[in-house]
Amino acid sequence: MSKVYRRGQTPYWYADYVTPTGERIRRSTKCRDKGAATRIAREWERGAEHQAADELSGIALPSEILVIDLATEFIDAITHEKAAGYVAALEEHLRVRIIPYFGAETMAAKVTRQDVEGFRRALLSGAAPRNSGPKRNRPDSPMRAVTVNRHVVTLRRLLEFGVRQGYMKENAARNLPALRERTEPRHRALSDLELDALCRELGPIHERWVRFLVAAGLRDGEAELLRWEDVDFTHRIITVRASTAKDAETRRVPLTRAAREVLDVIAEELDIRKGPIFGAVDRRQALLHAWKRTELPGRTPSAHDFRHTFASRAVKAGLDLEELRQILGHKSVITSQKYIHLYGDRWAEAARKLDRL
Fold first, then answer.
1. pLDDT for residue 218
2. If we measure between CA atoms, which residue out of 169, 303, 310, 311 comes closest to residue 224?
3. What average pLDDT score do residues 281-290 get?
4. What are the strands, taking DSSP E only, across the chain?
């Protein structure tokens, strides 16, 4: 059974496991997050088991692998560890952009740093080939930096998987700096004024969806796939199923009064509490047009901004970082520390309590 640990003051987690041949392996995962390090350690342990089984059967492991075959193995490996929507997004990146650019005959070990940088430049300029069914012959358009970064991250994860599986010695996309184009924070919390103005311009269906995200703190995909069966009105609990959660782990979220009011209004109109509550609907255009009508400054709020608004309100209401981590479904409290700037008054209050001692 693999386990992870830290050595001294190093920020990285180390893997410790025993191979089927009795050899004990201790090596750095190069990960600061314990959850990611645990998954890597398990992959190494399973790889050692498969290698031992192949050696007993007289099967030699391939020393090289095609990019397209590596992509297939990568998707198969994460299918049982990640949510279906997350896996589908990565598979789309691989099928539409990455594999058409590098070609079906390219060996994964032959991908160089220059190739990765060329891939990024091609996405930025719109010159990268793509495979998207009937649209594949249409001229492409340049991508925004944030979209290019998502594709490069998928490529980096693919190559890192190949390194862990022993198909290559190094990851050509590792430590490639992300492109920057933002002049404002990636996510922001909406004020009461902004939220009320936006909801006034939205239709009733989209308004309820926004107010529910702000009141519950769920991710966009988690809210879209939420079912009435997942809501316990008696004990005030929302259950986010592993099949819809980003980290593929079930968690519970408190059902706030504001969230329940939204659900009660929806239930009265439907006259039934069964099946999906909101459903998967593209709300981006509705948000864009509604925000323009408000004539407020700043960019159009995204679904994650509503989640960020919930977290900011939760911190101001008195929740500590560990409680916030459990509700938001973060793997590590380090991820929740982006809200630490909201703790100023609470630290002052803690100091006053200690002074009274």
1. 92
2. 303
3. 88
4. 3-6, 13-18, 24-31, 231-232, 237-240, 251-254
Residue 191 pLDDT exceeds 80: yes
> What DSSP line would sit under 18-30, residue for residue?
E-TTS-EEEEEEE
Q: What is the pLDDT of residue 138?
A: 47
Q: CATH classification of 192-356 is 1.10.443.10, yes or no?
A: yes
Q: Is 242 within 8 Å of 248 (Cβ atoms)? A: yes
* Closest CA relative to residue 287, chosen from 206, 190, 222: 206
Tokens 């709300």 — which residue?
283
Distance CA 305, CA 325 (A): 17
Neighbours of 51 (CB within 10 A): 17
- What pTM does this model have? 0.55
* Cα of 26 vs its chain's centroid, Å: 29
Q: State how beta strands 24-31 and 231-232 pair.
A: unpaired
- What is the C-alpha to C-alpha distance for residues 187 and 114, in angstroms, rounded to an integer? 32
Whether the per-residue pLDDT at 181 is higher than 90: the answer is: no
The CATH 1.10.443.10 domain(s) of the chain lie at 192-356
Which one has a higher pLDDT value, 123 or 62?
123
pLDDT number for residue 37? 82
Return the half-sphere exposure (C-beta side, CA atoms, 13 A cut-off) of residue 303: 20
Q: What tens digit of pLDDT does each residue of 131-142 get?
A: 765 444 444 567
Query: What CA–CA distances, in Å, run from 297 to 170, 301, 312, 336?
Result: 45, 11, 20, 27
Quick one: pLDDT at residue 139?
Answer: 45
The answer to whether 216 touches 238, Cβ cutoff 8 Å, is: yes
Predicted pLDDT of residue 196: 93
- DSSP per residue over 279-328, as a string? -----HHHHHHHHHHHT-SSPPPPHHHHHHHHHHHHHHHT--HHHHHHHH
Q: Does residue 194 sit in helix, strand or coil?
A: helix
Tokens of 77: 């490996």
Indicate if the pLDDT at residue 329 is higher than 70.
Answer: yes
> How far is Cα 157 from Cα 75, in angstroms, rounded to an integer?
11
For residues 222 and 216, the answer to whether their CB atoms sit within 8 Å is no
